[in-house]
Amino acid sequence: MSKKIIAFAASSSSRSINRQLVTYACSLLEEAEAEILDLNDYELPLFSVDREDALGQPQPAQDFLHKISNCDGIIISFAEHNGAYSAAYKNLYDWISRIQPRVYQDKPMVLLSTSPGGRGGKSVMELALSQVPRFGGLVKASVSVPLFTENFDSAAGQISDPGLAAQVKSAVDSLFAS
């Protein structure tokens, strides 16, 4: 039986370059099927303790957590907003962590990031690498792809730089490696 992967861009943009990257990464999976989630399908009010008291555990947060519970691995491509997570991802994460503190439930993960700039989202990647393990993520590999528009052929849906393509392929291959 093939492994079930969930993947998503940690962005709510309909034109997300991180969605393009995570979709590309999923196309490289062998012997696994991926479901690419859209954070817009899990939109929630801005988290606060007062809202939590009023709303309890909103259904979209429970649904997203259910997706995590029922997968074998996770691939995320992080959008960098002012050096940190996007508000959409952070808000969903805040709601979910109140239901299940070990958000990622010891699932193997590949973390990606990209940006139009030369650092490729390295600031948000550093943040993710420091936090994801504390919340139950088993990070198997991470890759930051710099200069997205120069290194990704959007029409073909693939990385055009051979070295970066090899890095992403290696990361994806490591998801279930021992």
* Assembly state: single chain
Number of helical stretches of at least 4 residues: 7
CATH class: Alpha Beta
The portion of residues assigned to helices is 25-40%
The strands making up the biggest β-sheet line up spatially as 2-1-3-4-5
The CATH architecture term is 3-Layer(aba) Sandwich
Number of domain units = 1
Give the N-to-C terminal Cα separation: 18 Å
Could you explain how this protein is built, in words?
By secondary structure, the chain is an alpha/beta fold. The chain has helices at 17-27, 49-55, 59-69, 87-99, 122-131, 148-151, 162-173; strands at 3-10, 32-37, 73-78, 107-114, 137-145, 152-153, 158-159. The strands form two sheets. The chain has a five-stranded parallel β-sheet, sandwiched between helices. Helix 3 packs across helix 4. The chain starts with a strand and ends in a 5-residue tail after the last helix. 37% of the residues are buried.
Please supply descriptive tags for the structure shown above.
23% strand, two-stranded antiparallel sheet, single chain, Rossmann fold, alpha/beta, 5-stranded parallel beta sheet, 7 strands, 178 residues
Topology:
Blueprint: E1 3-10, H1 17-27, E2 32-37, H2 49-55, H3 59-69, E3 73-78, H4 87-99, E4 107-114, H5 122-131, E5 137-145, H6 148-151, E6 152-153, E7 158-159, H7 162-173
Parallel strand pairs: 1-2, 1-3, 3-4, 4-5
Antiparallel strand pairs: 6-7
Helix pairs in contact: 3-4
